[in-house]
Write a structure and sequence with these properties.
With 527 residues, the protein is of the alpha/beta class. The protein folds into two domains: 263 residues, Purple Acid Phosphatase, chain A, domain 2 (4-Layer Sandwich); 194 residues, HIT family, subunit A (2-Layer Sandwich). Helices cover 24% and strands 19% of the residues. The strands form five sheets. An eight-stranded antiparallel sheet has the order 18-19-20-22-21-24-25-23, with helices on both faces. Strands 6, 7, 10, 11, 12, 13 and 14 form a seven-stranded mixed sheet that branches. Strand 10, helix 4 and strand 11 form a beta-alpha-beta unit. Helix 3 runs parallel beside helix 4 and helix 9 packs across helix 10. The two termini are 56 Å apart. GO terms for molecular function: RNA lariat debranching enzyme activator activity. InterPro entries: Cwf19-like, Cwf19-like_C_dom-1, Cwf19-like_C_dom-2, HIT-like_sf.
Length: 527
């Protein structure tokens, strides 16, 4: 059992546990997070200390969160407070006889060093992480106990209600949870119950699959709103679970809520280091200069560039840079600030369109944040537009043997096939050609599975479902179009090759005019 803030209401807590155990059988232990003692604890606590009353279950508690309750915890390294109630200590790892590993951190976050007796500091967190991460083959811990919530835990998740996780909670706890990868993380202090959707601890298709983590915040014991303050769960120690079973991803699993903040922190750290040598950056070239530093001119392979800097110049004439004379501007149907929309040359259907960046970007993973934002706006507008016509769109990108990003958007009638049938068609036709097309989990962005410069093909439905293939050798250039043109979907096999579908310019102009007029109510660029 896990429990939220007890606030000294021991009789209420243990009375409830006795009732639960009489119905459901005995539990192995009770883990208490948040404030175990309150301002009126003395009378009740005295009865447990003197042996008049006894906890009905082995109970493990975290330490003080304020100066007023520090005196209840005589030994910072942990001790038995009374029969069947144990204070775990300031920080550490509790290992049960079954092999269950419980990491714990007492108190609230402090910026002071050393931290007050009721707080923890960055040093405490670093030392706890170091002691555990240095263990050979460390995969994570079974349970993490903290009193504060981790900052940002609500990212990618189900609603946290009135709690704003961007402001609430501890950044240090978020860092600890990210590093220790607990299967269960319990916290309290916010007087509410919240069970977050499980989140993954690896980057899909980039890292070896790992177990998921579950965050559960518990309310205070006996609260008037009857919010949940006790959580019952069964767990087999990680060390006893088969690896394949351990890494199974449950339905509804989300992205890791802490990854972005960690990456931002690393970037901040890197920029601070860069500011220390403002005059120039240096790279080592042992062959030419025998280990001496030489200034970088920004052309070295190791030089990292910002997202904005990736708006590079094409190596030759580009058919899709809007400023290029090569662009067939009569096909353009909408122009935004960073992107534009154009009918496809030799389109599979009359309303087959392309979303294209105005500047020169090779792929989605190279886009700057403002371009990504406008691409998303065009996707939303096209979804609304096509749905108004009884259609759903299928979008695909081939980052292979192309120099300018083209997001191909092709509508499919809603009554013609389901999104599941579209996915099955892509996957089955990929298998026929020995192409491994994998479904990317919900809430995962393409930039999380592909690095800039990586050749890939990906499909996206207007439901947000995505399929991804990392290209390692040859790849059929018309694959996406061929699947959609197949008998299973649009039944237009004769239009699978765009070169056979070119129309006269006058016909193209008429199609573009018609599309512009139809799309106008949905075109945010005109507002």
């Amino acid at each position: 059992l896990a429990c939220g803030d007890v606030e000294g209401r021991l009789d209420t807590l243990f009375g409830r546990i006795r009732a639960i155990q009489s119905k459901s059988g005995r539990f192995d232990m009770l883990l208490c997070v948040g404030n175990f003692f309150g301002s009126t604890s003395e009378a009740e606590w005295a009865e447990y200390c003197t042996g008049v009353k006894k906890a009905p279950i082995p109970t493990y508690v975290l330490g003080a969160n304020d100066q007023g309750t520090v005196s209840y915890f005589p030994d910072v390294s942990g001790c038995e407070l009374t029969d069947n109630i144990t204070y775990l200590g300031r920080r550490g790892l509790y290992s049960g006889t079954s092999g269950l590993q419980i990491a714990y951190l007492s108190g609230t976050e402090s910026q002071e060093e050393p931290a007050p007796a009721y707080s923890f500091s960055a040093k405490d967190v670093t030392e706890l992480k170091t002691s555990l991460l240095s263990s050979p083959n460390f995969k994570g811990v079974d349970i993490l106990l903290t009193s504060p919530w981790p900052r940002g835990v609500g990212a990618f998740a189900n609603s946290t209600g009135e709690i704003d996780t961007k402001k609430c909670g501890s950044k240090l706890v978020a860092d600890l949870a990210s590093s220790l990868k607990p299967r269960y993380h319990f916290a309290a202090l916010e007087k509410t119950y919240y069970e977050r959707l499980p989140y993954r601890n690896h980057k899909v298709l980039q890292e070896t699959p790992q177990h998921v983590s579950r965050f559960i915040a518990l309310a205070d014991v006996g609260n008037a709103s009857k919010k949940k303050y006790l959580y019952a769960f069964s767990i087999v120690p990680m060390s006893s679970v088969e690896p394949a079973e351990l890494v199974k991803q449950p339905q509804g699993v989300t992205e890791n809520p802490y990854r972005k903040s960690q990456e931002a922190a690393q970037k901040t750290k890197a920029s601070l280091h860069a500011e220390e040598e403002p005059a120039c950056q240096f790279f080592f070239d042992l062959k030419k200069h025998q280990g001496k530093k030489r200034p970088s001119d920004g052309k070295e392979r190791g030089n990292s560039q910002s997202k904005q800097a990736k708006n590079s110049q094409p190596t030759g004439p580009c058919w899709f840079c809007l400023a290029s004379p090569e662009v067939e501007k009569h096909l353009v149907v909408s122009i935004g600030t960073h992107c534009y929309l154009a009918l496809a040359k030799g389109g599979l259907l009359p309303d087959h369109v392309l979303i294209l960046p105005i500047g020169h970007y090779q792929s989605v993973v190279d886009l700057s944040s403002e371009v990504v934002e406008e691409v998303t706006k065009y996707k939303c507008a096209l979804k609304e537009f096509f749905r108004s016509k009884g259609k759903r769109y299928v979008l695909f990108e081939r980052n292979y043997r192309s120099q300018h990003l083209q997001l191909q958007v092709i509508p499919v009638p809603l009554d013609h096939c389901t999104s599941e049938e579209i996915k099955e068609s892509f996957i089955s036709q990929a298998q026929e050609q020995q192409i491994e097309l994998l479904e990317i989990p919900e809430h995962t962005d393409i930039t999380q599975v592909a690095q800039p410069g990586t050749p890939y093909f990906y499909v996206e439905l207007d439901t947000g479902e995505k399929l991804f293939h990392r290209i390692r050798g040859r790849f059929p250039l018309q694959f996406g179009r061929e699947v959609l043109a197949s008998e299973a979907l649009l039944a237009l096999p004769q239009r699978a090759d765009w070169r056979r579908c070119e129309a006269e310019r006058a016909d193209e102009e008429a199609q573009a005019r018609a599309f512009r007029q139809d799309f106008q109510p949905f075109d945010f660029a005109l507002r």
